[in-house]
Structures are given as C-alpha cells and as structure tokens.
Design brief:
single chain, mainly alpha, Arc Repressor Mutant, subunit A, three-stranded antiparallel sheet, 3 strands, flat, DUF742 domain-containing protein, DUF742
C-alpha cells in the first residue's frame, strides 16, 4: 500500500496595505487631519488664554445657532465643570487646538475658566497635635 500523496500549498500573495490618505473619509474629518485642525482653530491673532490640562471649563449658556459643531459640543459637555484634558479626550482634539477653541469661547463669554481646586498638601500641625493629645487622654 502506498501512502497518499500530499499536494503542496502555494503561498497566497499578500495584498499591500491601503495607502494612507489625508483626505476625509465619507465627508468626516479625521482627528489627525491638519486641515480640519486649522478650520477648528481658525486664523485668529494667535492669542490664547492661560490654560493648562487641569483648568476647569464651565458653560455659561447654551450653544448659539452660529456656533461651530466643536464649539457646540464643548458647550454641551461643559454643563458640569470639565478639565481641558477631558474635553480634549472627548472631542479627540490635541491640546493646542482645544486651547484655541476655548479661548474663542472665553472671549465670547460663553464659557468660564476656573482654576482647579487645590487641597492643602500638609494638614495643620497644631490640629494634629491636639487630636493626638486628646487620644492620649482617653
């Protein structure tokens, strides 16, 4: 009895990956698209508010009809205070574009920027000593 003959498999040709394109897909701009970031940020004078990642942004009013989609999204999200980092993540925009967008909203008095609440790093020593002496008396 002869063993069955096996057929050799030929390797299938691998298709090259699709080329990267800066064109928006189906009318939607990609977050990494430089043209989209320019249209969001606009061509203003370049002045920016002094914001950092933990600055809290609070909306003062509802979005006006003339607001861009990104401005409207910021105003809807900021009903409760949100940090600039959170807004940047939710809208998938880089921090630099977020600061320009928020600066426009601050100058239009649609949002308010608040410094984050900083807790005291070290508790008061006299309070700790008073608690310690009170516990020792027990």
């Amino acid at each position: 009895m002869t063993p069955p003959r096996r057929k050799r498999r030929r390797p299938q040709p691998v298709a090259p990956p699709p080329p990267l394109s800066l064109e928006p897909a189906q009318g939607q701009g990609k977050p990494g698209n430089p043209e989209r970031l320019y249209t969001i940020a606009g061509s203003g004078d370049g002045a920016r508010a002094d914001l950092d990642l933990v600055t809290l942004i609070v909306a003062r009013s509802a979005p006006p009809p003339s607001a861009s989609p990104e401005e409207g999204a910021v105003l809807r999200l900021c009903i409760a205070p949100l940090s600039v980092a959170e807004l940047s993540a939710y809208l998938q925009l880089p921090f630099s574009a977020m600061t320009v967008l928020i600066t426009k909203l601050i100058t239009a008095e649609l949002v308010q920027a608040r410094a984050p609440i900083v807790r005291q790093a070290v508790p008061d020593r006299s309070l700790l000593e008073a608690v310690m002496h009170g516990l020792q008396r027990l």
